[in-house]
Amino acid sequence: MKFRLVSLLILLMLLLSSCSMPFIAADTLPWINDEPILFKDDFQIQQGGWSTIEDPFSYVGYDQGGFRLRTNVPNFQVWSVPGLNFRNTQVITRTQKIAGPEDNLFGILCRYQDESHFYAFIISSDGYYGIYERKGEHLALIDQAHMDFSDVINSGSEVNDLQAYCYDDQLAFFVNDTLLIQVQDDTLAYGDVGMIVGNFEQGGVDILFDYFIVAHR
User: Fold this and answer.
1) CA 60 – CA 109 distance, rounded (Å)
2) What is the rounded distance in angstroms from the CA atom of residue 147 to the CA atom of residue 156?
3) Total number of domains in the chain
4) What is the pLDDT of residue 27?
5) What's the pLDDT band for 1 if we cut at 50, 70, 90?
6) Cβ neighbour number for residue 97 with a 10 Å cutoff
7) What is the pTM of this model?
8) Burial tier of 217 (Cβ tally within 10 Å: 0-12, 13-18, 19+)
9) Which band of pLDDT confidence, cut at 50, 70 and 90, is reported for residue 10?
10) Quick one: which of 17, 122, 168, 216 has the most CB atoms within 10 Å?
């Protein structure tokens, strides 16, 4: 059932993207109400429609049994989305820093509508976290004056398990099974999901995502 569901979901989104039908949130369709897993990818084979990049400045693609995002450009972010649409979701992934500065950012996207409109659930390798909204060319924190510190976040090349909840106007971020922050925002109601990685003043961040699961409550 789960593999059939994912295949039908991908087919539906491809059909919707090729015509002018009104938006339909996949998690509201009647045939998935009894199925908690909307989308799942362990990155062992190249599937799922993830956007990829490979140039002298950045790499976004399959590597080392996972999905890798790297960029050498300071104050810059790269991301990848599979081309789906959801309204209320729980997104789960596992991350590990391969290389680069501790002062970085990486995490989960939800309700991605285009490159200028999405939510980002972010941690850094030096222990900071936040929930951002992308507005135009800038990421802005929601209900935080700055990213906050937590010793729950593993530093260096240690693994971090991330969970992002987007339900109605509630956004919650769990790291290593601990709730770090919950905020309220109703700007974005639906969109894609994905992974994001970026640098601050020093480039070179390199993050590997081990798996990616989208669940429906």
Assistant:
1) 15
2) 18
3) 1
4) 56
5) very low
6) 23
7) 0.85
8) exposed
9) very low
10) 122
| 28-57 mean pLDDT | 79
Cα of 196 vs its chain's centroid, Å: 6
Question: In this model, does residue 130 exceed pLDDT 80?
Answer: yes
pLDDT at 93 over 80: yes
The C-alpha atoms of residue 38 and residue 9 are separated, in whole angstroms, by: 8
CA proximity to 213, closest of 31, 6, 12: 6
Which positions ≥6 away from 7 have C-beta within 8 Å? Answer: none
| H or E, element range at 210 | strand 205-215
Give me the CATH number covering residue 66: 2.60.120.560
Which residue in 144, 147, 148, 142 sits closest to 187, CA to CA?
142
Residues 6+ apart with CB under 8 A from 212: 39, 40, 41, 43, 67, 91, 92, 93, 193, 195
pLDDT tens per residue, range 182-194: 999 999 999 999 9
Find the domain containing 167 and state its range.
Answer: 2-215
Residue 49's pLDDT band (boundaries 50, 70, 90)? confident
Task: Please give the radius of gyration of the chain, using alpha carbons only, rounded to the nearest integer.
Answer: 16
3-state class percentages of the chain: helix first, strand second, coil last, to nearest 5:
10, 50, 40
Cα gap 53→202, rounded to integer Å: 20
Q: Which amino acid is at 131?
A: I
